[in-house]
Structure formats: structure tokens, C-alpha cells
Design the sequence.
């Protein structure tokens, strides 16, 4: 198994270790792609020198390059900052170059689920082959002696942290082994990961209109989370904001053959809706991979429970 040790901003770690969220965004101020891990593989946190220790980690979900407004809306404090102004100021401070008129700069996001944070007396010294010249991080492999010994240390710390955290890590490992490349369809994702994965899976286009203006696109649950709907890609759609509201209120739905259905109640209640009725019967824009397409189960739930006939 491969895993990554990423050099962590100390303030980011301290902020999140107090809050222990269900997911975190390990962001990078630039937009450099991250290709070191596959979904489900471990991503460990190493503090800046002179604190040369591994202090926690999480399990990799996805890397995405996104505007900071969307990143904040998706993750909020899980970005490691108390408010958007602090978040943006930290990014600008770390960026080597930023255009003065760049209102919403792009940053790299490494989305991690099931994060864990070690107390100071559990910190692990960096491996003997760790170079002080490493700026971003380094890949290790449990097939190699150094990687195997380090991962054993991590697992021992997880067990000592307590049953709940250790079980969470074991669950992720079990899911990766069981589902392999289909990990993201079964993983226990958080709200932020759900929003980013749906946005990227739908190629940043509204699934009904193909609108590409990102600030007006929302990742939508077909069966709401509040109604026991999971944060899964096949329970998601990417919709323009007005269509999102209509969908949530039941004035619009989708059929099991992936067509749009618009309720007559819009005209009856609002004496309007010409633009929306023009969408009636149109074919939904869906992901090319069938495993990510809207689930029949969630569509039927929305048809039966939410849709206003």
C-alpha cells in the first residue's frame, strides 16, 4: 500500500486538531495537480521544521482545483481557518504571484476523509530517509521496510487513540480492499467531499441546462441528507441554483429513464414557469461512468415523496 507524507501548515493542524472534523481539505495555495495517491490511500501530516514529526493524517478522496469561494462554501472551517477572510488572506500570503484583479483565485484541494490527530506525546519522528529539502511531501510504500515500519507506528497510535478512531481507519481500509476502484461510490464521504465530487463528476455543468457558470451551480442530494440520503455521487445532481430550489421543493424531478419532469403546480400556484416548462422531457446530462449516475432508488424516492403531481 502506498501512502503520502505531506508537509503541513502548523496553524492548519492546530486549528483542526482541536475540532476533529469528519473530513478536511488539505489545500495548496497553487493549482499544481496531485497524483501521488489513489482514492482511499492514507495521507499523513508532517509539521514544518523544526517540528519534524508526523502528527496525524486522513484518507485520500480526491484532488481538485477550485475557486476559493466554492472551497469555502464546501468545507468552511474544515479548511483550517475560522472564517473566509482569514482563509483568503492566508492563501494570498502564500501565493508567489496573484493578479490584483483575481477576485476568486484557484487553489489545489486534497480532500481527506476520516482524519485523525495525534496528541503531542504520540507524534512520530520523521523516517530516517526524510530530507530537510522536501517542501511538499513524499510517497512511501508498505512493501518497503521504512514504509512498513512507519505504517505500523501509525496503526499502533490509532489503536491507542481509542476504539472509535481505530474503527474508522479500519473501515476505510476495508472499503478500499473490498471495492477497489469503486471506492468513491461506497466511501463514507462528508458534505464537502460530496459537493466537490458531484461538481467534478458532472464536469462542472448543470445536469439539466449544461450551464457552466460555477458560482450558480449547486451539488444537490436527490434524497436529502436530512431524510437519510447518503453523501454519495449516485445520490447527487449538479443543478443551477433556481433549479435546485425547485427540485428540493418538489416542483421538478427526474424520471428513472433520466428525463426531466416539471410539475403543473408551478403554473397553478405562480401563474408562470414558461422557462421551466421548456425543460419538460429533456434528457439529463449524466456522468459517462454508469456507477456514478443517479440511482433508481433515490430517483423513485424523490418521485414518490417530494414531487408535486
Sequence:
Amino acid at each position: 500500500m502506498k501512502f503520502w507524507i505531506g508537509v503541513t501548515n502548523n496553524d492548519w493542524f492546530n486549528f483542526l486538531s482541536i475540532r476533529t472534523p469528519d473530513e478536511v481539505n488539505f489545500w495548496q495555495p497553487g493549482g499544481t495537480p496531485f497524483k501521488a495517491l489513489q482514492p482511499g490511500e492514507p495521507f499523513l501530516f508532517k509539521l514544518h521544521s523544526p517540528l519534524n514529526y508526523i502528527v496525524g493524517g486522513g484518507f485520500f478522496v480526491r484532488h481538485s482545483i477550485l475557486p476559493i469561494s466554492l472551497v469555502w462554501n464546501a468545507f468552511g472551517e474544515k479548511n483550517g481557518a475560522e472564517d473566509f477572510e482569514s482563509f483568503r488572506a492566508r492563501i494570498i500570503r502564500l501565493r508567489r504571484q496573484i493578479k490584483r484583479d483575481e477576485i476568486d483565485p484557484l487553489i489545489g484541494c486534497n480532500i481527506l476523509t476520516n482524519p485523525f490527530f495525534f496528541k503531542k506525546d504520540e507524534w512520530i519522528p520523521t523516517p530516517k530517509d526524510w530530507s530537510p529539502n522536501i517542501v511538499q511531501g513524499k510517497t512511501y510504500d508498505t512493501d518497503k521496510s521504512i514504509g512498513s515500519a512507519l505504517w505500523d507506528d501509525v496503526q499502533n497510535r490509532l489503536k491507542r487513540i481509542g476504539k472509535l478512531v481505530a474503527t474508522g481507519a479500519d473501515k476505510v481500509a476495508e472499503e478500499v480492499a473490498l471495492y477497489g476502484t469503486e471506492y468513491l461510490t461506497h466511501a463514507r464521504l462528508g458534505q464537502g467531499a460530496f459537493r466537490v465530487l458531484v461538481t467534478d463528476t458532472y464536469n462542472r455543468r448543470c445536469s439539466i441546462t449544461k450551464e457552466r457558470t460555477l458560482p450558480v451551480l449547486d451539488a444537490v442530494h436527490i434524497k436529502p441528507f436530512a431524510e437519510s440520503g447518503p453523501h454519495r455521487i449516485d445520490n447527487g445532481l449538479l443543478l443551477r441554483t433556481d433549479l435546485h430550489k425547485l427540485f428540493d421543493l418538489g416542483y421538478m424531478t427526474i424520471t428513472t429513464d433520466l428525463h426531466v419532469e416539471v410539475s403543473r403546480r408551478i403554473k397553478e400556484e405562480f401563474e408562470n414557469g414558461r422557462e421551466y416548462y421548456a425543460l419538460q422531457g429533456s434528457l439529463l446530462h449524466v456522468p459517462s461512468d454508469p456507477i456514478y449516475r443517479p440511482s433508481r432508488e433515490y430517483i423513485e424516492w424523490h418521485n414518490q415523496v417530494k414531487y408535486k403531481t
